[in-house]
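Q: Hi! New to this. If I give you a protein sequence and the SMILES for NAP, can you show me the bound structure?
A: Yes, paste them in.
Q: Okay, here:
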Amino acid sequence: MAASRRLVFIGGGNMAEALLRGILAANRMRPQDILATDVRQERLAHLETAYRIAVSSDNAAAARQAATVLLAVKPQHMDGVLAELKDAVGEGHLLVSIAAGIPTAAIAARFPHPVRVIRVMPNTPALVLEGVSALAGGSHATPRDLETARELFEAVGNVVIVDESLMDAVTGLSGSGPAYVFLIIEALADAGVKAGLPRDIALTLAAQTVRGAARLVLETGKHPGVLKDMVASPAGTTIAGLHALEQGGVRAALINAVEAAVRRAQELGRR
Ligand SMILES: NC(=O)c1ccc[n+]([C@@H]2O[C@H](COP(=O)([O-])OP(=O)(O)OC[C@H]3O[C@@H](n4cnc5c(N)ncnc54)[C@H](OP(=O)(O)O)[C@@H]3O)[C@@H](O)[C@H]2O)c1
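A: Thanks. Here is the predicted structure of the protein with NAP bound:
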């Protein structure tokens, strides 16, 4: 049967909505190309009203309608969802999973025939179209499948393609990373308040400084060390601040944070 839609979301929660919004805003698809399912009627009503897409509470029937099935439920719900999809997903389907910690092989093993699976680790800035998503292809996924997935996730930010063995490293860096940066922004704003700035102004200065510095790295392609040296004048204020950061062990603390999160992702993956 020819697919009547281009994309089905299984699970219409936060991440699915962020992707949906990005895909429509970037004109990658039209609302009539997309269908979403959920177990919550109020989510379906919201998605239907806000984005004019089709909705359903029947995962298997929905999957039969589209070539690309995007699995966007929480990892603990994946087992049940894959059982429902077992007979609905055929060799013509592409499965794209954003469920943290579930390998493509574990998904493929639930089907009696070979299925093409792509695993993605997005992050929450996708909600404002500034995410970064790492994509990894499973054993049956083709380069074309990776391109299909890349086009979807580029609608909510940057995309990198990695070997699946690196997904725990991605989780520890960019998956958990927004929380590290929130903590840094909060601390910078506290420092501004301590130096006499009103809280709202301190927070704006801190957050925009982080955004601007990140854009300078991405848009100039210059090494962050080079950009740092450019603003640190001899005997100036910045080098004094940098010295204090090094004394505080910030570099080692961030490396330790990522390392701890990677270890935790590995532990959760072994369960
Ligand atoms: N948010 C992130 O930053 C982030 C980052 C990377 C990866 N991810 C991954 O993205 C996935 C989705 O995360 P999320 O934050 O978008 O979660 P979410 O907001 O909870 O969305 C999942 C939705 O699916 C619904 N659902 C549960 N069981 C279902 C079923 N059998 N069939 C259809 N829908 C079902 C949920 O309903 P109930 O609420 O009633 O269960 C919920 O509305 C997760 O696997 C997560 O690991 C998220």
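A: The chain has a mean pLDDT of 95. Let me know if you'd like me to explain how to read the tokens.
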